[in-house]
């Protein structure tokens, strides 16, 4: 096919492939060529301006004096300086005053709440939900039902030091039979509806005493003082049916199943260092060391002001 | 000569073409399901194998290596025969190559679903599958090179430009893939990379960007250079332009990797170098787009009637757009906003759906008609496919532009107290409508792919019973 050109007048190069593929002998468009050279010339200017070229020992620094970390630090310092100028007195008070005093200073309290949104959102919301609305098996923070107390100092202690729930399996002595567990479960369900004295659950009430449940949950299902034990006389459940596949011995379908599981397997019950199957996990990490003391105070105020602080 | 000329080997290519279309449907459907999971997370049903983290990787591998790789394989071996007027060198070698590639890639993808991964982006499959891909790849390279080398040099004295690009793909990916894949196997399905830390990141993105540069660009430009002039029946606009932009791209692409690592622990000069060469690549990239588009000068009216040409030209438009967008995103100022956001995902898809898939789709329609020597079962359905694919792509990338820029702005926004204004979770929640929109874009694209599969299947099934499109000439 070389030598034979069926399209002699279209300005092709004379090369023909696969019967009809050919190329014209056009030069690249002028604007394109100019832009092409400009692109490569730009590399030179860019390399003079920014650190770009590796050398045997290090690299060219560029006349702009730019480094990534410097760019970051400069803009961060600018923000810090602005914050300092505007809020230094408030930040100072937040750091030095005791919580009780901060709570009396409405202005300061509102400032602490306003600056805690990110802290809460990035550190707490994953478990306790946006705005403290809670998640299945993670306590609601926006109501007045507190496991460890709703006073500002108690909330602060919970955040700073963390909390680890603990409830023995099968009663305090670990000796409740399956039948007794069924009975005491019925009693706990009745308690939540205000029917703890119903004769139908008398047997369960006896087990409640025998298992020494009252030591933590109180004689009438309501803890005498905050100790981590749930109030059993309302319908706010610490643990709801939660089949995530980790509990192999039983399936929870109803709230009664969930209560029975908690009584039977306890909370954070360990054997030989490992959690036993189906035991509840209830632990809040300690934030001391992970967040600054000032930020922990800030968060305590934020949580207190979510609605349920006492 | 005509398409039925026994001179050319089509058996393997026919098989490969149909598999390519099936992989297009599978890969985009998996991607769309993964997109649905981002909008409605319950859709993973707590099954580890289909959770987003694995499904996304299954999707990228099915599309890039599976669909993209096979599309390159069949189009390269189709066009290398025709542009060299030479039958495929060692047909059994080509079959063996296909076997290695397909088995290893499919095996690797299934492995990924079951958690076997090297955790290197776009190079996830474990070493044993890697090795199979490498063997298949080298065999493919050998068949390709030898088909050119054994041509009748009297009859075909020059090597056509599409072959340069395919050669660049084959050679560059061989060493990129091998170097990035160097690892120490500890079991049949587990290996540890030779690299660690900053070196690891640099090598990984040297490969990662060239999976885009050589695999998804150079290879597909080869495809463009054969199928656009062939389908348009017009001469390529400028031979000189193809020479200049070819060498500029080949020189430039290998330097770009570090623009994926701006503002990280790698030395500052690497990011600058990656960014500035990226910017200098805009014009060379546009050289390819120009050369393809200007091939139509004097024949633009063809676009009204030739639906296959529509795919090819739309692909070039998306190519020009994404090769502008990419360098802009690699510059420091824009990267500081766009990095880690959905904008990156949008950019990748304007390339992958708009450019890679569309140019491959157009080429496949062309090849199906030639190899089975018939018109398509339905030309109208090609047009339906074109609009589904175009609208799907546009919907997808617009959703990701908006969500990506919004994400970037939300992450850096401060309130009146100088505290970050939005939590990360709030930025995730704000993405929801765009994730739904992206999913709908995906649905349209998959619907188009299904239309194509149906059309191709019907064409193949009825090829013999219908009149040949072109009389032997």
TrEMBL record, chain A:
The lineage of its organism: Bacteria, Pseudomonadati, Pseudomonadota, Gammaproteobacteria, Thiotrichales. Heme c 1 binds at residues 124, 127-128, 284. Belongs to the CcoP / FixP family. SUPFAM superfamilies: Cytochrome c. Residues 111-192, 199-307 form the Cytochrome c domain. Binds 2 heme C groups per subunit. PANTHER family: CBB3-TYPE CYTOCHROME C OXIDASE SUBUNIT FIXP. Pfam families: Cytochrome_CBB3, FixP_N. Component of the cbb3-type cytochrome c oxidase. One of its GO terms (cellular component) is plasma membrane. This is Cbb3-type cytochrome c oxidase subunit.
UniProtKB/TrEMBL annotation, chain B:
The lineage of its organism: Bacteria, Pseudomonadati, Pseudomonadota, Gammaproteobacteria, Thiotrichales. It holds the Pfam family COX1. Heme b 2; high-spin binds at residue 347. The chain crosses the membrane at residues 12-36, 62-80, 92-115, 127-149, 161-186, 206-227, 239-256, 276-300, 307-324, 344-365, 386-414, 434-457. It comes from Sulfurivirga caldicuralii. Cu cation binds at residues 209, 259-260. Keywords: Cell membrane, Copper, Electron transport, Heme, Iron, Membrane, Metal-binding, Respiratory chain, Translocase, Transmembrane, Transmembrane helix, Transport. It is an enzyme of class 7 (translocase). The keyword Iron applies. It is a multi-pass membrane protein. This is cytochrome-c oxidase.
């Amino acid at each position: 096919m070389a030598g034979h050109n069926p399209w002699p007048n279209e300005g092709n190069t004379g090369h023909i492939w696969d019967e009809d593929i050919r190329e014209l002998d056009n030069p690249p468009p002028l604007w394109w060529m100019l832009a092409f050279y400009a692109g490569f010339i730009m590399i030179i200017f860019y390399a003079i301006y920014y650190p770009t070229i590796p050398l045997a020992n290090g690299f060219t620094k560029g006349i702009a004096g730019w480094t990534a970390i410097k760019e970051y630090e400069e803009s961060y310092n600018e923000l810090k300086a602005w914050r300092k100028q505007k809020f230094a007195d408030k930040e100072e008070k937040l750091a030095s005053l005791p919580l009780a005093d901060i709570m009396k200073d409405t202005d300061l309290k509102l400032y602490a709440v306003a600056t805690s949104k990110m802290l809460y959102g990035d550190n707490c919301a994953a478990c306790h939900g946006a705005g403290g609305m809670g998640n299945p098996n993670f306590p609601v923070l926006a109501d007045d039902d507190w496991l460890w107390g709703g006073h500002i100092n108690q909330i602060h202690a919970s955040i700073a030091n963390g909390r680890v729930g603990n409830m023995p399996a099968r009663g305090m002595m670990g000796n409740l039979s399956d039948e007794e567990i069924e009975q005491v479960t019925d009693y706990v369900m009745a308690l939540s509806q205000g029917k703890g004295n119903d004769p139908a659950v008398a047997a369960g009430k006896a087990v409640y005493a025998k298992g020494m449940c009252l030591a933590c949950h109180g004689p009438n299902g309501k803890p005498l003082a905050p100790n981590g034990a749930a109030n059993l006389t309302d319908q706010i459940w610490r643990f709801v049916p939660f089949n995530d596949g980790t509990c192999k011995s039983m399936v929870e379908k109803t709230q009664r199943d969930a209560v029975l599981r908690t009584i039977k397997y306890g909370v954070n019950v360990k054997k030989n260092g490992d959690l036993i199957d189906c035991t509840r996990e209830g632990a809040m990490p300690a934030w001391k060391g992970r967040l600054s003391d000032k930020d922990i105070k800030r968060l305590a105020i934020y949580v207190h002001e979510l609605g349920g602080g006492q | 000569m005509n398409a039925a000329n026994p001179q050319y080997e089509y058996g393997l290519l026919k098989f490969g073409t149909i598999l390519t279309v099936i992989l297009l449907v599978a890969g985009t459907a998996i991607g769309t399901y993964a997109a649905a999971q981002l909008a409605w997370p319950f859709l993973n049903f707590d099954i580890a194998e289909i959770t987003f983290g694995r499904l996304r990787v299954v999707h990228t591998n099915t599309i890039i290596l599976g669909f993209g790789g096979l599309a390159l394989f069949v189009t390269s071996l189709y066009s290398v025969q025709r542009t060299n007027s030479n039958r495929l060198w060692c047909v059994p070698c080509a079959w063996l190559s296909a076997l290695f590639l397909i088995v290893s890639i499919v095996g690797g993808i299934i492995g990924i679903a079951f958690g076997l991964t090297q955790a290197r982006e776009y190079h996830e499959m474990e070493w044993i599958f890697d090795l199979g891909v490498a063997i298949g790849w080298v065999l493919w390279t050998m068949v390709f090179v030898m088909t050119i080398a054994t041509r009748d040099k009297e009859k075909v004295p020059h090597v056509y430009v599409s072959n340069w690009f395919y050669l660049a793909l084959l050679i560059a990916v061989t060493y990129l893939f091998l170097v990035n894949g160097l690892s120490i196997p500890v079991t049949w399905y587990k290996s540890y990379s030779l690299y660690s830390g900053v070196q690891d990141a640099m090598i990984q993105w040297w490969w990662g960007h060239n999976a885009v540069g050589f695999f998804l660009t150079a290879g597909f430009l080869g495809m463009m250079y054969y199928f656009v002039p062939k389908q348009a029946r017009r001469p390529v606009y400028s031979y000189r332009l193809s020479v200049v932009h070819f060498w500029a791209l080949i020189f430039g692409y290998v330097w770009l990797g570090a623009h994926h690592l701006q503002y990280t622990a790698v030395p500052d000069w690497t990011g600058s170098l990656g960014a500035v060469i990226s910017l200098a690549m805009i014009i060379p990239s546009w050289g390819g787009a120009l050369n393809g588009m200007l091939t139509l000068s004097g024949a633009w009216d063809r676009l009204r009637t030739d639906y296959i040409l529509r795919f090819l030209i739309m692909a070039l438009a998306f190519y020009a757009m994404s090769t502008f967008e990419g360098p802009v995103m690699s510059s420091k100022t824009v990267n500081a906003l766009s990095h880690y956001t959905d904008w990156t995902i949008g950019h990748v898809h304007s390339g992958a759906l708009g450019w890679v898939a569309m140019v491959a789709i157009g080429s496949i329609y062309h090849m199906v008609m030639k190899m089975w020597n018939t018109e398509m079962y339905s030309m109208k359905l090609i047009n339906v496919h074109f609009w589904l694919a175009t609208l799907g792509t546009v919907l997808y990338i617009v959703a990701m532009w908006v969500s990506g820029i919004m994400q970037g702005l939300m992450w850096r926004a401060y309130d009146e107290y100088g505290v970050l204004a939005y939590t990360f979770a709030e930025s995730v929640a704000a993405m929801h409508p765009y994730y739904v929109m992206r999913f709908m874009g995906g649905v349209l694209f998959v619907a188009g792919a299904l239309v194509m599969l149906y059309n191709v299947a019907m064409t193949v099934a009825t090829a013999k019973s219908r009149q040949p499109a072109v009389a032997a000439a």
